[in-house]
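Quick question about two entries, pasted in order.
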Amino acid sequence: MKIRAVNNPNPITHQHIKGEIKSWYVDDKYMVIYSKTDKYIHIRIGHAVCGDKHDIPYMDIQRIKDEFLGEDKVAIQIFPKKKDFIGKDSPMYHIWHWKDIEVPNLAEIHNYDKELIGYE
């Protein structure tokens, strides 16, 4: 994975981004914006090229999560109520890690066999 730092979003136009902020391009395909507060880490993943409307593959999001949050951390993606939904025109993914919330291990709950589903 090729990672290079880029300028952070403009704080005037991006007042909604809270905490310590860092930004990178990943593989010259994605822009990653990382923000950290006392309570959570929020990672935004979008295309490096504005206007690119292609979906971002799940495994690319997983690789980015592992790189910027850590392989030992769980991140979740929230699907809001329709009335709270924003960002309809931009394929930007938001993943979150809350410091004081333990998310159950879904592989254990559902008794998945990692070899069977092709995940190492």
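Here is the second entry:
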Amino acid sequence: MDVVGPADKTGVAPAGPAVCHHETAVLRWPGNALHVVWLVLVLVVTFSSADETSFRGVKVPDSKGRQTKAVLTFSDNHHAVEVQPARGATVSIPYASIDKCSYEYTRRHRISETSIAAAPVGVGAIVMLTKDRSHWLEIDYREQDLPKVCVVRMDKHDYLHILDAVKTHTGKDAEILGNADKRKK
């Protein structure tokens, strides 16, 4: 086998041994092998984080009845549903103490003191004509043999995922209440 070195400007290769002009070696993975490595990494990250499922777009009532942002977590490590409001104490509900879960979809007109006060301006009248749509999750559980209820308002983009997580983590289906069948699909 003849080895030919680089050609000069005339296109003729000079006589003598070939010279390697590679300054750096590049390690190239075959395309499929790189995809396999990427898939394995994604699966490892997915299954290692499968112990906890968290939802940030929820709200819970505070001590004064106002809704405050919270994080809803289904923790298989602690075997509990954890509700951590932005302000206030975290509520931890063990899976074993959950009696039932209920889902309800509500629609109501947005009439409040603010919208009534702004009605003469015109903005309040528009707000009063719109409807507030809410997805609610109610968790009935027992703490030291006392019945308790935890109510969570779910984000419209996450409520189906949350209901799936309830079934997956607690093993209980959420009971459908009220006019939930009238929600837009």
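Reply: The CA atoms of residues 48 and 118 lie 52 Å apart. Residues 114-119, 121-128 have pLDDT under 50 and may be disordered. Hope that helps.
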